[in-house]
Amino acid sequence: MGRAPCCDKNGLKKGPWTTEEDAMLVNYIQKHGPGNWRNLPKNAGLQRCGKSCRLRWTNYLRPDIKRGRFSFEEEETIIQLHSILGNKWSAIAARLPGRTDNEIKNYWNTHIRKRLLRMGIDPVTHAPRIDLLDLSSILNSYVCNNPAAALLNLSNLLNSTQQQQPLVNPEMLRLATSLLSIKQANPEMCSQNYNLHQNQISNSQEQNNQVLPPLQSNDQFQNLIQGGDFSADMAKHMMQQINVEGFSPNMTNLGCPLSQENIFPPNLSADHHQTAVSQANYVPCSTTSGNPSPDYPENSYFQSFNYNKNHDFSFDSVMSTPYSSPTPLNSSGTYINSSTEDEKESYCSSWLKFEIPEGTLDISDIM
DNA sequence: AAACGCCGCAACCGCCGAGGT
DNA sequence: AACCTCGGCGGTTGCGGCGTT
């Protein structure tokens, strides 16, 4: 049985509200309070349906609504809550005083979502995007001191881009080639990182009394996925490794893909799924020094992307200011309005721009 | 100056669950 | 149990403003 419409729409006005209508609605609610939305428009003399009145009140006319730009703190809160709650905008709004679910939803869709996509982060899963999987296989080959395999993987990757949709965006390719060239220049560094990576995993397992061995390669991970025999324990195991590593443009970290679609099969419970996602993104990122970066607030979403201040590939090295901040704080603590989306974007993209040293790998040769 | 395209946001739509009859 | 109302939610749409050509 179909549900009856909330009101008789014949003769009722739709579209943008006029100031007169706003005034009528506000006056009525100030006298009688909100509620009984069905009868409210009739009593208030409005040619609107109750639903429209309620939306207008809750999303725009309510006196406690905070208007204007979202602060950096608000933005971070939204991202973190979204990673936990998903598209539960009302739940997110409940934790952001003065902001409505509609406003947060719009802000997410028009600003944050796009920014995360440009950063290579899946806005749904909050994990690095699927194309990093292929990138990781290239980098992993190099970690294993197999440049030939790396080049082969890269070649396959490029060939695949000639079919339908590109698997890797240009920034990812640039990152890949840059890292390859850096590896050529500093072979010891990478092996050190790899050893460190393995040590971290071992330490983590001791702490968690786990007996599962660390995944030795990206291939092993891929086999797990493709084999279909992927239990919740395995997923947990994977996420432990991710927790140890955090996420950074570090080679070994990239060898551990985070895409949620791959990590969690449909039969994995939502609880496992959600818990793992939260852990993957928001545990404090381990660093070689063992200390979190002081450049970001503790537990900052963006701190998850921080690697190591002393490391050549640290995001810190290319970010002097939290790039997500829409309105950087000045000395008095007020927000500077001159910050533009372009400026924010430049922060985001800067840590993906690793210039290729001259005389190193030339992708055009492969293509 | 006009045309065009893009973007952001307010508003709408359809669905759902809770609660009442 | 069935039906209905109501409030709430998330997804989508459409319009106006703005920048670019």
From TrEMBL:
GO terms for molecular function: DNA binding. It is found in: Nucleus. It holds the Pfam family Myb_DNA-binding. Keywords: DNA-binding, Nucleus, Repeat. Signal peptide: none annotated. GO terms for cellular component: nucleus. Residues 9-65, 66-116 form the HTH myb-type domain. Residues 9-61, 62-112 form the Myb-like domain. It comes from the Eukaryota. Its main location: nucleus. InterPro entries: Homeodomain-like_sf (IPR009057), Myb_dom (IPR017930), Myb_TF_plants (IPR015495), SANT/Myb (IPR001005). This is Uncharacterized protein. It comes from Malus baccata. The lineage of its organism: Eukaryota, Viridiplantae, Streptophyta, Embryophyta, Tracheophyta.
